[in-house]
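Quick check before the chapter quiz. The format below is the same one you will see on the exam, so make sure you can read both the input and the output lines.
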Amino acid sequence: MNRFLLTSLLAFTLGTAARAQGAALAPVAPVPIASREQLEASLRQALALLPEADTHPTAPQVLVDQVAANQPRAGDFLIALASDNSSPLQQRAVSAVVAAWQSMSAEQITTYLQSAIELKATLRPHYPTGFNVYGRFSYGTRFGWSSLPEGFKLKVHVTHLLDGQIYGKPYDYQGPQATTGWLQTGDLTEGEHIASLRLNFEFEHNEAAAKGEVESRPFKFSIVDAALPDDLKGLTTPEAVRALKSSFSVSDVEAGLSTPVGEGLHVPTWRLDQALPFALCFDVEIHEAQSGHIIKGDPIVIPAGETRSGYFAPYSPQQFTLGRAGSVEVQIVLQPSYERAMAEPTIQSFYASKLEFGNLHFQIDGAPVPPLR
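Here is the expected output.
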């Protein structure tokens, strides 16, 4: 929708509510609306006018000014809508809250943050005894970076808990999202366990300091007898092999091709062109042909139903290229990783056969390289 037209419609919508209580005809400046019902109805209508195609539309100034003129009721109403996961206006309400941030009180922002911040423990329902998998602790905001105004400084202190006791180290950060820690399952006893997170936050708003706390829901999981079958299937069937071969490809390094793995280092690439009904979870080994050295590469994890592309990068590109130049012949070996598949709760099946790709090359800018000794 044309920006001028949108602003005009919003001004008319908000002005109609004001005129209903006796304000001057067609007001230009925002005015307080005494009736709670009329205020909420006008805000709903104004939010509905924001463009549907824009996931996070920016609220026009006329709406921002009307919210400021009707604080704290307008802010409280928008924050309630922004917290309502069932409301079709939720994302628009988030945009309005962010746009009207300056007119919000510290108490309103605290309330908003307590509903917008989401705490997660990414865990499977069951893990076999003695099998060490890393479950991920994290936090974020409901709609990512757009949930907060640009430049807002949110300081967080995250505590992880396992079965009601503090687990591992706390995590301090400044930002709207982060991975905060890892839960290792290898040493846990058989039976049910509960993981959770507690986040304390601090911020400054209009020269006032404020703070609050958010607690996660309990994340339940179990450690079970390793002899019992689990729900993660490793596939080696002929059908899986054919599907992978027709979809997954590897290309050797191209002369002069820039790659994002380090200045002066060019590497082979991989592509998954067609989505597969199973996941790919590989540990990557880079075997140098002349020296026999084996170098770890960045792992490949692709959930079922997705397509991706990437490159075979060593964990430490700088260490790999140090004192070296020219072409290095390598073989890439992809080892299926049960551990990486187990670490992703959404993965139910994965390709479980080793893949090998020979006669590939890493190109390091400079003179030819002698083999490592």
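If your answer matched, good. The chain is about 25% helix and 35% strand.
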